[in-house]
Amino acid sequence: MKIGIFTALFHDRPIEAALDYIAEAGIQSVELGGGAYPGSRHLDDLGGAKTLATDAGKRKQLVKAIESRGLILSAISVHGNPLHPNKKIADEHHEAFTDAVLLAEALHGDGIMPQATVNGFSGCPGDSARAKNPNWVTCAWPDEFRDILDYQWKVAARYWRAQNRFLKQHNCVFAIEMHPGFICYNNETLLRLRKVAGDRIGANFDPSHLWWQGIDPLAAVREIGEAGALFHCHAKDTRIDPQNSGRNGNLDTQSYGDIANRSWVFRSVGYGHDEAWWKDFVSVLRTVGYDYVLSIEHEDGLMSSAEGLHKALDVLKRSVIAEKPGPMFWAKD
Question: Could you list the residue ranges forming a coiled coil in this record (predicted)?
Fold first, then answer.
């Protein structure tokens, strides 16, 4: 298993400088933003995803930049909302998705990407065809909420069935980050979408979005892994504030910057849950056959980017099982 990083953390520096820092830190893999909400800062340095997908010369520059530093590319991330009721936003995010799929296919063929993987969100429609903004339903009553959900799942199933065919044509998988605000936010909703859309749809498993929902990430990742739907993993922590949570619960709309008053906040690895938890997480990943990348995503408002990265890296280096297990000494085969 390799330790990686989502390079959106280094949006303030060009790709070569970002890769230098990453390699010097002892990180082994990178995840690049390809558009939508994370932007595409580093791919844009070489012309953008659309150009790179078709321009072998430009792509060779990207491959060399990554490969020469001993790194691999784990995924291209286009976290967006292609189901947005605003057609302009939906079209932009859909285009980012399709460009990323074509680029992932090409980079897999170039040998820098072990599996053609695109990360993102499931998206969330509005409450009807007349809606202007997404509408995330979190309650089954009054009855009109269920009517909204029925409409949204019809929209999502139609869209993602078509995208599953597109992914299959290009030998790529789409790893959905289960995230509140979108129709896939837990195991039930992710596996439901996979069932109705197809097996090119799976998970980019990020425990940080699950803790505050009351989900046990160890149980959740085991189910996802056993379903054959675990394509990629993020490493990000969450701390629940016992006082604020005790008063207000965890459905929190306070600004992410208002740390003192929030019920929960994102933390660097090891600052929400201890090292023992992360070792258990890695062991469960290995148990279900996951041996790809744990990609650090830094969103800790109490630490600088550099401090948060190195603190997370310190914990993960002691937690990750780097080598594949060999046969037991008593095994006959």
Answer: none
In whole angstroms, give the CA distance from residue 38 to residue 36. Answer: 6
- Single-letter residue type at 206: D
pLDDT of residue 276 exceeding 70, the answer is: yes
Q: Is 76 helix (H, G, I), strand (E, B) or coil?
A: strand
Q: Identify the CATH number of the domain in which residue 194 sits.
A: 3.20.20.150
DSSP symbol at 266: E
Q: What is the rounded CA–CA span in Å between residue 37 and residue 97?
A: 12
Q: How far apart are CA 116 and CA 244, in angstroms?
A: 42
CA distance 203 to 190: 8
Range of the domain at 57: 2-319
| Residue 261: count of CB within 10 angstroms of its CB | 12
As given in the structure block, the two tokens for residue 119 are 């990360």
Q: What is the pLDDT of residues 286-330, one digit of tens each?
A: 999 999 999 999 999 999 999 999 999 999 999 997 766 666 545
Number of alpha carbons in the 13 Å side-chain half-sphere of residue 180: 14
Q: Which residues is 293 bridged to in the sheet? A: 2
Q: Is residue 191 part of a domain?
A: yes
